[in-house]
């Protein structure tokens, strides 16, 4: 029986195909083992400009067809987000301010409840002394609200000062830190009496404490009620440091108030306090 013989050209092509297949498999195996890594960069380098060119063409076509609508949408969305952020920032600022005011008013309310023997009127600070020597603040309450001269002014931290002038809708408070201010006080623990005066520096000083009184840093100082300028029991501050000299007939002390007089916002006016008329009994002329 005679077998058909394949044509020579077909045999040649099959041979080439087998060789190519073997080479391809070999290249793959060698590549997996990393033998072509040193020359891969050199072989691929000519293709980099082609890749960049194709990428540029693709980006240009995509931007012309799709980017404008996407860009406008992104801009619109960004504007909306910026508006929302601005609104939330404004609301957060207002809420923080409300919270701060609430804390101040709440503390004053607690003070008024803890001291029910007096009547109080809350007032906001609307002006401050701009000079170097006088120390006062202006309040937004006046005679229309029942405010009169000589009414004490306090916060929950202690004594602020006294009303010295009042108009229909405003009043002036002379601070206890003013150099012309003086308050009769006592040390709460020892009951020793003295006077706290203001200084040109804005500090407070305690005078006329007898030498035999043991006075130390941290001792609490309250108004004594003597002289009738202030009701008794208002906190003035605490002893900061003691000054005692051998030849002096009394000792002094620097006084630290818990109040930051430069940051006063809201205060309480003690409207129920009426200074007693002591001048006729003492044989001294009444104040103008």
What is the CATH topology of the largest domain? Thrombin, subunit H
List the domain count as a whole number: 2
Average pLDDT reading: 83
Lateral arrangement of strands in the main beta sheet: 1-2-5-4-3-12
Low-confidence stretches: none
**How far apart lie the N and C ends?**
152 Å
Strand content: 25-35%
What would you call the quaternary organization? single chain
Strands, total number? 12
- What is the level 1 CATH name of the largest domain? Mainly Beta
Overall form: elongated
Q: Per CATH, which architecture of the largest domain?
A: Beta Barrel
| SSE pattern | HHHHEEEEEEEEEEEEH
Number of helices: 5
CATH homologous group name of the largest domain: Rod shape-determining protein MreC, domain 2
Question: What is this structure's SSE topology?
Answer:
Layout: H1 8-32, H2 37-44, H3 47-65, H4 67-114, E1 120-128, E2 136-139, E3 152-155, E4 158-166, E5 171-175, E6 182-187, E7 193-198, E8 204-210, E9 220-223, E10 235-243, E11 250-256, E12 266-270, H5 279-282
Antiparallel strand pairs: 1-2, 1-12, 2-5, 3-4, 3-12, 4-5, 6-7, 6-9, 7-8, 8-11, 9-10, 10-11
Report what the structure shows:
This protein is an alpha+beta fold and 288 residues long. It contains five helices and twelve strands. It folds into two domains: 72 residues; 155 residues, Beta Barrel (Thrombin, subunit H), CATH 2.40.10.350. It has a six-stranded antiparallel barrel. The protein starts with 7 loop residues before the first helix and ends in a 6-residue tail after the last helix. The model has no long low-confidence stretch (mean pLDDT 83).
């Amino acid at each position: 029986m005679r077998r058909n013989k394949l044509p020579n050209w077909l045999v040649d092509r099959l041979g080439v195909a087998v060789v190519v297949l073997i080479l391809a498999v070999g290249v793959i195996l060698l590549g997996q083992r990393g033998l072509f890594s040193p020359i891969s960069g050199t072989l691929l380098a000519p293709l980099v400009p082609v890749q960049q060119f194709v990428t540029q063409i693709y980006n240009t076509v995509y931007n012309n067809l799709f980017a404008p609508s996407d860009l406008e949408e992104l801009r619109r969305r960004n504007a909306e987000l910026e508006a929302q952020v601005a609104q939330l920032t404004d609301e957060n600022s207002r809420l923080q301010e409300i919270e701060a005011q609430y804390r101040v008013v709440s503390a004053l309310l607690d003070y008024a409840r803890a001291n029910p023997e007096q009547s109080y009127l809350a007032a906001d600070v609307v002006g401050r002394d701009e000079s170097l020597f006088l120390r006062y603040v202006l309040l937004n309450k006046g005679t229309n609200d029942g405010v009169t001269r000589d009414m004490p002014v306090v916060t929950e931290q202690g004594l602020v000062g006294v009303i010295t002038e009042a108009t229909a809708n405003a009043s002036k408070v002379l601070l206890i830190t003013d150099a012309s201010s003086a308050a009769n006080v006592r040390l709460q623990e020892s009951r020793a009496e003295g006077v706290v005066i203001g200084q040109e520096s804005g500090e407070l000083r305690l005078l006329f404490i007898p030498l035999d009184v043991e006075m130390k840093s941290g001792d609490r100082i309250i108004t004594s009620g003597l002289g009738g300028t202030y009701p008794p029991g208002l906190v003035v501050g605490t002893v900061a440091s003691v000054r005692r000299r051998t030849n002096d007939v009394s000792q002094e002390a620097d006084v630290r108030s818990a109040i930051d007089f430069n940051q006063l916002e809201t205060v309480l006016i003690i409207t129920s306090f009426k200074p007693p008329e002591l001048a006729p009994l003492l044989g001294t002329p009444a104040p103008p």
